[in-house]
Amino acid sequence: MYLDHPRDDSDDKGAGLLAQLSMMIRALFASSVRNTLFLLGGLIFMVIVATAYGQIRLNRWNQPFYDALARHDFGGFMMQLGVFCIIAGGLLVLNVLQRWLAEMLKLKLREGLVQDLVGEWLKPHRAFRLAKVGLVGVNPDQRMHEDARHLTELSSDLGVQLLQSSILLATFTNILWNISGSFAFHVDGRNYAIPGYMVWAAIIYAGSGSMLSYWVGRGLIRRNANRYQRESELRTSLNRVNEHIDRVERQGNEREALARINLDLKNVLGTMRSLVTGLTELTWVTAGYGWLTLVAPILVAAPAYFSGTLTFGGLMMAAGAFNQMQSSLRWFVDNFSTIADWRATLLRVADFRRALIECDAIPPAAVPKPRAEA
After folding, report:
1. How far is CA 237 from the centre of its chain?
2. Is the pTM of this model over 0.85?
3. Where does 17-193+202-366 sit in CATH, by number?
4. What is residue 303's predicted lDDT score, i.e. its pLDDT?
5. Is-contact 28 112, C-beta < 8 A?
């Protein structure tokens, strides 16, 4: 129990990720915003599907546009510019609509989550008991305000991006397979056919980046959790001094208060230095793959182009499809630090809610009495 082992967020001894997600989802489903969340989710799904269709049309547009350039066909070039304006205009409208729906989803998620947390916190005797059972009960306002806000915003952003990446992945995998399905390599007079070789190249390229990102950045979850815990301790120390400043001045405890605040600040800066190191190491991977992505699609499609299987327009279409597919597969790489931040924030909020429920089992006599302040 929390009385026996005061809990630190950096020690993930509680429920696992799936159990934490299940608890938070059940809480949202029981909230007054459940139907609105379903409606917003359905609308976002439809907009993303429509956007995927628009991006398919845009990808197909590459071939006639670049072929017109290669033929020096000015009339065809101008006609394709007009087609581009129509496609881009439709995608612009869809992007604006998706942004509005995503922001509304954040708003409703926060409404449901904060209402649930505050409702659980203010059930009879819970707030007092929670304040006495360990670190999880320190500064509950931050858990219900800042952490809840951060969790809902990250959840909305990551969820929408993951859904969009999944739909685009399924769509452009099929396109890229069809483009590269019939190509054969010629080596020493022999033909070697690799069905859909561009698809396999995209999977290997993005998969290696994802594995390397996980290996380099796996410690960011713990470092983020430590940082949030130390930030909470610093804020608590500052609030306590501010609330009891008259007593501190009367008793001449300014030096002790300063020492405590400086110690908490030192702990915060230490965790931030550790986090900076982790983010810097991860940037070597994400930035490196980002620069390589500028030429990787052309390099992969080049054999088919030089063999005469693809026209110049077909090359650009294949490169665009490769980019869409590998960027969808690289969602994990591009968002690893954000996922680590989300995971750490989920840990803090889920731990807080779980502690609220568990403290009901603590007998009143087992709750420590408030200490008399010096």
Report:
1. 31
2. no
3. 1.20.1560.10
4. 81
5. yes
